Amino acid sequence: MRWLSATEQVAWRAYLRGQRLLEVALDKDLQAHGVSLSEYEILSMLSEQPGRRQRMSELAALVVQSRSRLTHTANRLEGRGWVERHPVPGDGRGVELVLTEAGFAALVEMAPVHVESVRRHWLDALPPELVTALGDAMARVRDDLGTTQQQRAEADRIARG
After folding, report:
1. 73: part of which helix (H) or strand (E)?
2. Is the Cβ–Cβ distance between 83 and 74 less than 8 Å?
3. Is 115 helix (H, G, I), strand (E, B) or coil?
4. How far is residue 28's CA from residue 5's CA, in Å, rounded to a whole number?
5. What is the pLDDT at residue 154?
6. What's the rounded Cα separation, in Å, for the pair 87 and 92?
7. Where exactly are the structural domains of the chain?
8. CA–CA distance, 143 with 149 (Å, rounded to integer)
9. Alpha-carbon distance 103 to 94, whole Å?
10. Is the dihedral of CA 118, 139, 63, 13 positive or negative?
11. Residue 4 CB contacts under 8 Å (≥ 6 apart), including other chains
12. In 11-113, where do the E strands start and end?
């Protein structure tokens, strides 16, 4: 067993607590405008896709949510008229989530709130070189874990035939 050193333990716990506190702060600022951070992230990710649409399974992976959780969140967004579900052409089982004009308008209205929240709670707390270093570090973690998840998904696909 490779236990964490004292320095690693301090860094790890600071990361966990800081990340959780940051998510709570960002979520709270958005909730004041009637949307959660996870809802905002889905709207934002859809707005960046061609045609403002994405297969739900791909969107779940992009926002790091289970398909079940994404489905529940999509239900709430659909109830507001911000997204619609459409069958994927040529795929009897595939469903894509589509950002509506009303959803895009809501996102445009909320974006300044979110960006200001990110600035106030994250960027203003760090000098630029730490922002860059943290971005680089988390990109490595993302890429490493993403590769592992892709390998598992490919193995599952092969096992199913």
Report:
1. helix 67-79
2. yes
3. helix
4. 34
5. 59
6. 7
7. 21-111, 126-161
8. 10
9. 22
10. negative
11. 12
12. 53-55, 83-87, 95-99
Residue 86's DSSP bridge partners are 96
Structure-block tokens of residue 80: 């507001």
Q: Which residue has the tokens 């896709």?
A: 49
CA distance 55 to 91: 11
User: For 22, how many CA atoms within 13 A lie in the half-sphere containing its CB?
Assistant: 16
Q: Which residue has the tokens 């892709």?
A: 150
Q: How far apart are CA 33 and CA 21, in angstroms?
A: 19
Per-block mean pLDDT, blocks of 10 residues, the chain (161 long): 96 97 97 94 96 94 92 96 93 90 97 97 96 95 78 57 51
pLDDT in the model for residue 150: 59
C-alpha–C-alpha distance, residues 91 and 141, integer Å = 33
CATH of 21-111, one of 1.10.10.10, 3.10.450.350, 3.20.20.60, 3.40.190.10: 1.10.10.10
Can you give the pLDDT at residue 159?
57
Neighbours of 53 (CB within 10 A): 16
**Tokens 């459409």 -> residue:** 86
Q: How many C-beta atoms surround the C-beta of residue 154 within 10 A?
A: 10
